[in-house]
TrEMBL record:
Lineage top rank: taxon: Eukaryota
Domain called Metallo-beta-lactamase: residue spans: 11-174
Organism of provenance: Salix suchowensis
Name of the protein in question: hydroxyacylglutathione hydrolase
Metabolic or biological pathway: Secondary metabolite metabolism; methylglyoxal degradation; (R)-lactate from methylglyoxal: step 2/2
Reactions catalysed: an S-(2-hydroxyacyl)glutathione + H2O = a 2-hydroxy carboxylate + glutathione + H(+)
CDD domains listed in its UniProt record: hydroxyacylglutathione_hydrolase_MBL-fold
Similarity-based family: Belongs to the metallo-beta-lactamase superfamily. Glyoxalase II family.
Annotated keywords: Hydrolase, Metal-binding, Zinc
Amino acid sequence: MKILHVPCLEDNYSYLIIDESTKEAAVVDPVEPEKLINAANEHGLNLKLVLTTHHHWDHAGGNEKIKEMVPGIKVYGGSLDNVKGCTNKVENGDKVSLGADVSILALHTPCHTKGHISYYVTGKEGEDPAVFTGDTLFIAGCGKFFEGTAEQMYQSLCVTLGSLPKPAQVYCGHEYTVKNLQFALTVEPDNVRVQEKLSWAQKQRKAGLPTIPSTIDEEMETNPFMRAELPDVQAKVGCHSPVEALRKIRLMKDNWRG
């Protein structure tokens, strides 16, 4: 299994997931289909599937176009999310296979949108799995609660995604990492892992390089929203439960002008 990132629009990421033995590929959130098709042609890939994380235009807006450009391509999207161009609706626990060795598991991760799906992808034995989290989990951040509650985001982040294997590679929908880590330091000023990762992320961006992927393990150490489970973090924001802390941290982030 191989994963290629394709920057789109101002700060979005689309992705190609490649089954290396068959050269079959899936695309995640192809908002600018031409870019994905060019990348696929460069690598000699056969595009089979579109995996849509949620219905917002900057993720699902290229679905109709890619269907025109790649006749027969299947477009997957959450059953509750009214995804543009969707041909195959998925629910939590549904599985899709790609090529010979790639397996895709749909995880319902609602809150940003009510039908948001994260896609957990595994390849051959010994390869690190990956999870495509759209706008639910960002590196050191999470999506705004547009269509859901703090309870749902807690379930999506800390339970559903938090229970994935620690080495799972996290590929999110936007390049927001530097700002997210700067905010994370306002919650935990003494968190050395956040300080180190911010310094690294700033260097990456200065060099024009992406900050993805992260890992579930790194998120547990640096993401204030996933760390809302820790009594220490709850105390820092004056709360007594994970959900309360998550709600408070989101409110702080919404009002932060970093």
